[in-house]
Amino acid sequence: MSSTWGRNIRISVFGESHGTGIGVVLDGFPAGLALDMDQLAAEMARRRPGTGRHATARSEADQVEILSGVHNGITTGTPLCGIIRNMDTKSVDYADLQILPRPGHADYTGQVRYGGFNDPRGGGHFSGRLTAPLVFAGEICRQYLETKGITIGSHIQTIRDVIDCPFDPCRVGVSELELLRTMAVPVNDRSCAQEMLDAVEDARLAMNSVGGIVETAVIGLQPGIGSPMFRNVEARLSSMLFSIPAVKGVEFGDGFALSAMTGSEANDAFYMDNGHVRTRTNHNGGLNGGITNGMPVVFRVVVKPTASIFMEQETVNLKTATDAKLSVKGRHDPCIVIRAVPVLDAATAIAILDLLLDPNPVVAANPAAGPG
Amino acid sequence: MSSTWGRNIRISVFGESHGTGIGVVLDGFPAGLALDMDQLAAEMARRRPGTGRHATARSEADQVEILSGVHNGITTGTPLCGIIRNMDTKSVDYADLQILPRPGHADYTGQVRYGGFNDPRGGGHFSGRLTAPLVFAGEICRQYLETKGITIGSHIQTIRDVIDCPFDPCRVGVSELELLRTMAVPVNDRSCAQEMLDAVEDARLAMNSVGGIVETAVIGLQPGIGSPMFRNVEARLSSMLFSIPAVKGVEFGDGFALSAMTGSEANDAFYMDNGHVRTRTNHNGGLNGGITNGMPVVFRVVVKPTASIFMEQETVNLKTATDAKLSVKGRHDPCIVIRAVPVLDAATAIAILDLLLDPNPVVAANPAAGPG
Amino acid sequence: MSSTWGRNIRISVFGESHGTGIGVVLDGFPAGLALDMDQLAAEMARRRPGTGRHATARSEADQVEILSGVHNGITTGTPLCGIIRNMDTKSVDYADLQILPRPGHADYTGQVRYGGFNDPRGGGHFSGRLTAPLVFAGEICRQYLETKGITIGSHIQTIRDVIDCPFDPCRVGVSELELLRTMAVPVNDRSCAQEMLDAVEDARLAMNSVGGIVETAVIGLQPGIGSPMFRNVEARLSSMLFSIPAVKGVEFGDGFALSAMTGSEANDAFYMDNGHVRTRTNHNGGLNGGITNGMPVVFRVVVKPTASIFMEQETVNLKTATDAKLSVKGRHDPCIVIRAVPVLDAATAIAILDLLLDPNPVVAANPAAGPG
Amino acid sequence: MSSTWGRNIRISVFGESHGTGIGVVLDGFPAGLALDMDQLAAEMARRRPGTGRHATARSEADQVEILSGVHNGITTGTPLCGIIRNMDTKSVDYADLQILPRPGHADYTGQVRYGGFNDPRGGGHFSGRLTAPLVFAGEICRQYLETKGITIGSHIQTIRDVIDCPFDPCRVGVSELELLRTMAVPVNDRSCAQEMLDAVEDARLAMNSVGGIVETAVIGLQPGIGSPMFRNVEARLSSMLFSIPAVKGVEFGDGFALSAMTGSEANDAFYMDNGHVRTRTNHNGGLNGGITNGMPVVFRVVVKPTASIFMEQETVNLKTATDAKLSVKGRHDPCIVIRAVPVLDAATAIAILDLLLDPNPVVAANPAAGPG
User: Fold this and answer.
1) In CATH, what number does D91-356 get?
2) Nearest-by-Cβ selection for B314 from A108, A235, A270
3) Residue pLDDT, tens place only, C330-339
4) Which residues on chain C are in Cβ contact (under 8 Å) with B77?
5) Average pLDDT, chain A
6) A123 to chain D: closest CA residue
7) Is-above-0.80 flag for pTM?
8) Cβ atoms < 10 Å from Cβ of A329
9) Other CB atoms closer than 10 Å to residue C57's CB: what's the count?
10) In Å, how far is D282's CA from the nearest CA of chain C?
11) Complex ipTM value
């Protein structure tokens, strides 16, 4: 019961990197949505490996077959299952990983967790490949959110030491976020895209890897989404974001920088804007008490450098219980930050939809309450 | 269904800051633990307000009455309920907050969420006071973890610009963590404690507030705890940590700093140490694929500056839907970082115990598996 | 995590029969309901012991103290906690039960389950007394359902061999159900009330006990409540009903009698009634595919004879592991069927409210769909 | 979030009767079980339609393709997905059902629930065909339970007025239960098998249908499984059993017959048997307080007559909102009781495994506790 997430919608992700197939069941999804299959394919393509020098050489069509939950192109409301068959598997590349675990990867911990029975090929169920069904499910959720006027978008904040302009957390807009979805290297300042690719190429040539930070914005959310204490937006989003392999940190609004600020700097003053309550700044990332206040929800996620690098590393031989050397083979990205962007968009969409569907029954409007 | 958390154990937190009482039900807790009531009282005291110039003037005994789940001083295994009555409430101080919401606080969002019916006094259910039952439940969990050789401890990494030494993530030890639990200002480098108090006092005098970062370590965890994808240690811990008011960021191991590192720098090389698999560095915070690898689990949390500050602030009048000024009254800490430490210890204990109790059935050891 | 139930609302029941107190946290309950405290007290009184010769001699005021979740008499939407202190406890009566378990009771199984640490006094957490917080929580849920036009009521179908008239499953009405709530012995045919009391008195004089069947109806439910497969009304209701001590069977509509019917007898023919779809018969208890069809939801529950009887019984001595004799002391009802009625009403209200709050998002009405 | 069930293991069932495929994800299943694929195929065959005159004419191979969670024939511990493609679909047979809903079926309620977007063909997600993935998942669970010495078996207690001998609830044994698994018409008294088939054939010739009762036994369960209040065995099992289409009643032990018994008749006296606590009778079906007492767990389920019958029935035309007549076409069993037996075995196995995996941590054995 570990690969299942959600309350109002529930996703159940399955599969191993080099098994027969991977996929996801999406239970509780709203009925009546006409799926945009082209857009779905476009998101799958964004995540897919092998579309550039900076990506793994593995070539997978990542064609999703929908087995259920869609009738005449429209969601039925009953569980929606999509599967992707694994095609280009070269499992021989990974034969040793059960004995010589890769540093920074789950080869060792997965083996302990499952008593040695987990499928070790290509990381098995721990593989980044499992983010493909996440993108599939998330893009469907995003299409629903779109009908509610909610837009999600992400840009690469940094790759190694190359830094993009951050979002303006008060004014980030729909067209800006939609544009990012179409870019090979989604950045606010286009001039840094090539620098980022260069940093990745440098790492590749050095048989090394690099990481980075992705910043995501969600706009169009009504105030009042989320609940205290444990079902607040930060808690639910983070539980989803930390489920993406390689994510090691999540911060909302100004995040860790808030530690050096004073209250008067960190507080976002309220003001009335055409009958709506807004804040003049957005250091809190659109969330007060973990509940949306109507401003853009903004957060950042760190994606660590790919653990699978080609230079020789120290490890242990689990068979002989001795120290050993390892030279990783196979096909590995020197940087997964770019491919992580659609995954983060998708994961965000899943979490936001689950929160949005929370029942919020109020017997009658309290006249004491002001404008919401 | 928002103030309930957990799977194997489940806590249900209730109460409002100025209502009759607050408390928690802890369901699924192991039977047979003789509670150390002195240690429980000590942890409650660490969190309690009013124990220093840097803390709120509100004075609460925070005496917990245990209604159930303990018989002859030993846990029964059936639900354990502890309640704390609110004594020193001056609700008149908060009368205006429903009309003039405090910036950075949940006054506005809570009101929207509950249609204006939530108890506005002192933040109601959103109040930091709700962390008292969390400390109660968490300390009981910690006492159980102690019987399993698991130790949790935290130090204040920063308050504003005052910086403590970080944990040595490979070698942090039991006595070090236990010592922190006894310190008024828990820091690794004692020389910075007074500087931190000075920074808080400066903020108080300026009718302002400051935040900081807390670093936590958990040691004694066996490898193999946690599960892919969504029930990994990072996802579960973060969902608990982000439920604590004022927490705006969580990072594991080197966290956001990993974004500027290469894979060869970030990977923690394995080696054999007396028959045990260990890593030479611990940039991943004891977690590979979100599963414990036997090294200390280390993470940091940012606590934003207290939102309630005494200097005049801009806000809106929700009755008239116009801009307004607000001077917060009442009793508020200029810094909650110090009091957050026992809360973070407690929250960590709850999350770790919940994960530790996961069934992990393996039909038979696989001889192919090496040392675990 | 065993005494927690629900998804949209979540109740967490705690307490032991002879401990300090018992109670319940109700999380996720709608904001804005003005509680009718008199009606709440009336329901608590219906369940309370000691109100007749046929009931246990234990005398408990069962005064509920609300600690949270209600402000100015109106629900806040945040967790609502109610506690009841145990007053009239004579634990000495139960001292032996840990050694000599009562047949038919949970003394033995509870002890095995909790390694001997559970509170054995009066059945501890297994006691029927734990239904008091259930009535408290359920009555609050029922008051909310009432605002939605939903009425719940139950009558005693049988006590031993005394049989009441069943509900007319197509025409059972609001006033009929509300009347039952006011009756000391709630029956459709008043002439059988005294016979039932006589059957109970006979059992009491014989130092024995009797059981019976309760029939419950829920009216005013819109069609379309419940979901396939596992969240259908029958599955959710039964999971709640079987949680009430002494319930050993649950059947919907004609229930077990359907086994002897043909399809043409069992199917409920649809017809149009003033623009509404209705059925001419109601053998399926208002549920098709586990989803409400707009007809009354009708079900029956069997309540076994009280396990605690005063005549001497065979048991075992768990200390010496030998056969033994037991004469139960203490205060026990010779029949709990009458007191079970408000418990079943309450449990039904909780389950129905949880289902009613399910989000049921449909992007747009399908013009292909007919009248609902 | 309706087609997902379980806590320690979690199944997510998907598919529609006439869609591309159906299947199930089984998350949390133990690692290391070598699957017996022949036994799996045998159970699938027991449920499969078209294997007799008494069964539907639809012919489906029901070949399950395992996509994940099994490596080298052994379970990996990560999610196990099995899919079954729909082959022999004749959807034209069902074209009218969206307009003329079948009495006793979910055609109408499903349409209301999903705003008319659910797949109406063959009952869509409500179809009995969805029990095929349940059998698949359940048989895998049963194979695991077998390694723990737990045996599950069921016989047909009645079909219409033909009655089989009940289980001896104290002495029902392994070989008896295993034998039932191999019988075309699983009964204790073989002489009634042909009578049952005759009753089914009579119904078929009359263009009608019949129902019945199935009795199930689970033996080999240790005492102490299950928890108060809501996670007791009866509550969890019933929530699973009522999820099977056509089940309208569930009773444990003597069930509804307990209503006419006295306490002295209903209580099961304890005695010592070779160092084990046993009961002389088993009117409570192996469960005290909803927790196993070590005796066989015995329960009965009523399966209503197939709703789809060929004789003309009254219904409504949802398009025109007028009364109408319906003659069901397609392929339908005149009795599904026989095919329901493997489904009930499977559902029982899933529920029992989920309960068996509950963590039951006790700090130390209480010397006060006797033999368990």
Assistant:
1) 3.60.150.10
2) A270
3) 778 999 999 9
4) 113-115, 117-118
5) 93
6) D78
7) yes
8) 15
9) 12
10) 10
11) 0.96
